[in-house]
Amino acid sequence: AVVSVKQALSGTYPAGSILTVRGWVRTRRDSKAGLSFVNITDGSCFAPIQAVVPAELANYESEIRHLTSGASLIVTGELVASQGKGQSFEIQAHTVEVCGLVDDPETYPIQPKQHSMEFLREVAHLRPRTNLFGAVTRIRHTMMTAIHRHLTGEGFFWINTPIITTSDAEGAGDMFRLSTLDLANLPRTPEGKIDFRKDFFGREAFLTVSGQLNVEAYALAMSKVYTFGPTFRAENSNTTRHLAEFWMVEPEIAFADLADIASSAEAFLKAIFKAVLEERADDMAFISERVLPGAAERLEAFIQAPFERIDYTDAVKILQNCGEKFEFPVEWGVDLQTEHERYLAEKHVGRPVVVMNYPEAIKSFYMRLNDDGRTVAAMDVLAPGIGEIIGGSQREERLDQLDLRMRQFGLDPATYSWYRDLRRYGSVPHAGYGLGFERLLVYICGLSNIRDAIPYPRAAGTAEF
Ligand code: 4AD
Ligand code: MG
């Protein structure tokens, strides 16, 4: 049978089975006894499988002795119980078909040693071959599937909202504008000048910053929905936690308020942590060893303990009285900076924390004004080591209030007419949140830069691949 490395090591096949595995050489070691030990990975699991290759094979001198890290091969042989520690099985090779050797092994970028993250970013097409990126990639996949599974189990429907949009969902002006390459037919102003603003079939269009407004419409028909896809932000933030293209999952719930979504977000994060611990124990063990000591235990602890909830107003007092020297001073009304968020999550609570009821002026136009008239029903979930990972709110379901807030933010209600309709036809209280997927992956794996949490990072100066 042709099996993955994971299947070969799993115990599904008894010793004595004749199996074929296909993959890439991690290391090769030759013994004096006329044998070579070749470690092979195919990405299916953290562990490689060891093939024991006898010198009697016809291509031993011509090919096996030239195998270097990264070469591809197909090995057929007998599965035998391994003497090596930590290895359940190995393969006694009968044939080894070499598919592709590595040109110039000395300059092959992925040598069997620890590379710096900066270096690996420059070889984004080859970094999935490393132990670390293999682990991160599998954890990423497990998180993705856990999200769909958890939300499906809670009765949510997955709604595919558009990437191309004409309205600014966050009202923050951080959108990338679309432009055509059809130079001969560029739209013109009446004066004959090129009108770059009308590039999308005569309209101005952008890459979406959030699917929230679109998914709200579906919540007001399907009750529990979410959108999950790539989102784009043109904020020129050259930081370790911002990407120009990132994935966001945005659950939206009808007949829900701020307390409901705080609970929903907590259960949601815990379900993801649980799936990672259960399905990726081998990868998390490696992460604990290489990147963040105790990474797995930390997630375990977060699953057990309830998340703390703090009012913004109280958070400001905590930050003012904590004695910490912050770069940005704190006073009521200011947006919390990463340093403040991290202090609250790391030092004050030591676990993820939900900060609620922010001043209305620093948050988005669609957030519901509280009865105090100066705060909105918004929440951020802050995590130790990174700060904000989730932003959410109860939405303003009252048309007159929504119009007021749009004008206050300099937005023209006319351009949001379909969104206003939702408040005219059977409006109900509703609320939702958005999880920055890569931020959560950074958090789970203890990575120091969000550019290592997505296969091909897009940020200022990084679009080579
Ligand atoms: O707080 P944000 O801007 O909220 C929204 O977009 C709402 N529409 C969500 C909702 O209520 N449905 O973004 C949500 C999350 C942030 O908490 C952060 O984790 C992540 O998205 N995020 C980014 N991640 C990577 N790079 C960026 N440039 C990000 N901007 C936001
Ligand atoms: Mg936010």
Automatic annotation (TrEMBL):
Family: Belongs to the class-II aminoacyl-tRNA synthetase family.
Compartments, record wording: Cytoplasm
GO molecular function, one term: asparagine-tRNA ligase activity
Enzyme Commission number, as recorded: 6.1.1.22
Organism classification: Bacteria, Pseudomonadati, Pseudomonadota, Gammaproteobacteria, Lysobacterales
Name by which UniProt lists this protein: Asparagine--tRNA ligase
Reactions listed under catalytic activity: tRNA(Asn) + L-asparagine + ATP = L-asparaginyl-tRNA(Asn) + AMP + diphosphate + H(+)
Membrane-spanning residues: none
Subunit structure: Homodimer.
NCBIfam families the record matches: asnS (TIGR00457), PRK03932.1 (NF003037)
